[in-house]
Amino acid sequence: MGSIVAIVGRPNVGKSTLFNRITESRDAIVDEMPGVTRDRHYGKGEWIGREFTVIDTGGYITGSDDVFEEDIRGQVKVAIEEADILLFVVDVTMGITDMDEDVANIVRRSRKPAFLVANKVDNNERIPEASVFYALGLGEVYPISSVSGAGTGDLLDAVVGRPNVGKSSLVNALLGNERTIVNPIAGTTRDTTHTRYKAFGHDFYLVDTAGLRKKGKVHDNVEFYSVMRTVRAIENCDVCILMIDAQDGFEAQDVNILWLALRNNRGVVILVNKWDLIQKDTNSTKKFEEAILSKIAPFRDVPIIFTSVIEKQRLLKGIETAIKVFENRSKHIPTRKLNDIMLPIIEANPAPALKGKYLKIKYITQLKTHYPSFVFFCNMPQYFKEPYKRFLENKLREHFDFTGVPITIFFRQK
């Protein structure tokens, strides 16, 4: 499980630039998915083969010049609560400000692994100036320039060298001790809660997140808090039940959560709640389903259940579907069966020839990952294009039930 790394500090020290620099190697991959907004404040970082999630706390405060110091303190506290590792960014051109000292105090008290990053060290003359930050009492100072990338390699070496010290909420759930927030922030309704569910022959944990609200309708701290919680919950779950309000329809925020779950290779079930309040005709469910599927294309193989929590309609159906998706996600298809079914299909529908070269797939096997991933051994892996990959995925879905689960396909030289 990757660590969560939060970038904290007062406004205008270059937190977002550092965020972009750390996540840039993954951006192409992250944004491959349609409907994923580019202004998100969390992303994937990767360094020497270690993956981690990066959260930029700066993006959650609007109008960053006249921010209330209380807001920033609140943000830092939430980041500390959720993150495993902190990158505390300061600005070498400004020296130590009162607000830096404030943040440093909160970071020190947290006892979380923290790295003090002196940003805007854009030339060698500024390196000695960074030593002033040792006075903050947080140990080693890492001089970097997030604009040019200088020094970020050393910083990341130090960060990924640390073990993941955050006790993941999953472990807490298994032990049954629900976490409470150390510093409750005004306006947050509740912590992520874990409930053990034992009924009808099932036994699993339900993790309830505080819910992502629409931007602009809510205080920034709360929005930031919700995103943190939801990212953490999705990264630790097997199946994500995405509950939407039938009256609101499937909104941009829902699309984002769905793609976050799919990018993390989690199972997905969509629950349309408050279906009892909708005026219906014979095609209502069909139309609503189509509206959702058109927004999440090309991924269409997801169960959509229409429920009413108040009326207790089809709730058990929702749980049973989630269990089925869990089974689909952990399914392993014997290599022989895979080849017996897929090779004739491939032979009848070969990949289009490229520059007069014929593309041949010789053999298929499923990897032993926690989610369905397949390797297609072939003669020229680099020439297999996205449409053919999608064709293969659809055929796998047609013959083996992978409803609700993302599938990963690799092409490798035989």
Protein architecture, described:
By secondary structure, the chain is α/β, with parallel strands linked by helices. Helix content is 35%, strand content 20%. The protein is built from eleven helices and 14 strands. The strands form four sheets. Strands 2-3-1-4-5-6 form a six-stranded mixed sheet, with helices on both faces. A three-stranded parallel sheet has the order 9-10-11, with helices on both faces. A three-stranded mixed sheet has the order 12-13-14. The protein is globular.
Index terms:
414 residues, alpha/beta, six-stranded mixed β-sheet, three-stranded parallel β-sheet, 11 helices, globular
| Secondary structural class | alpha/beta
Helix count, DSSP H or I runs of 4 or more residues? 11
pLDDT under 50 segments (min length 5)?
25-40, 59-65, 162-191, 213-219
Q: In what range is the share of β-strand residues?
A: 15-25%
Q: What is the tally of beta strands? A: 14
Percent helix range: 25-40%
Neighbour order of strands in the largest sheet: 2-3-1-4-5-6
The Rg value, from CA coordinates, equals 24 Å
Distance between the termini: 30 Å
Q: What pattern of helices and strands is seen along the backbone?
A: EHEEHEHEEHHEEHEHEHEHHEEHE
Shape: globular
Main beta-sheet strand count, sense and barrel state? 6 strands, mixed
Q: Let me know the average pLDDT.
A: 76
Helices and strands in order, then pairings?
Layout: E1 3-8, H1 15-30, E2 42-47, E3 50-56, H2 69-82, E4 85-91, H3 98-110, E5 114-119, E6 141-143, H4 152-161, H5 169-175, E7 193-199, E8 202-208, H6 220-236, E9 239-245, H7 252-263, E10 267-273, H8 284-296, E11 304-306, H9 315-329, H10 335-348, E12 361-366, E13 373-378, H11 386-399, E14 408-413
Parallel strand pairs: 1-3, 1-4, 4-5, 5-6, 9-10, 10-11, 13-14
Antiparallel strand pairs: 2-3, 7-8, 12-13
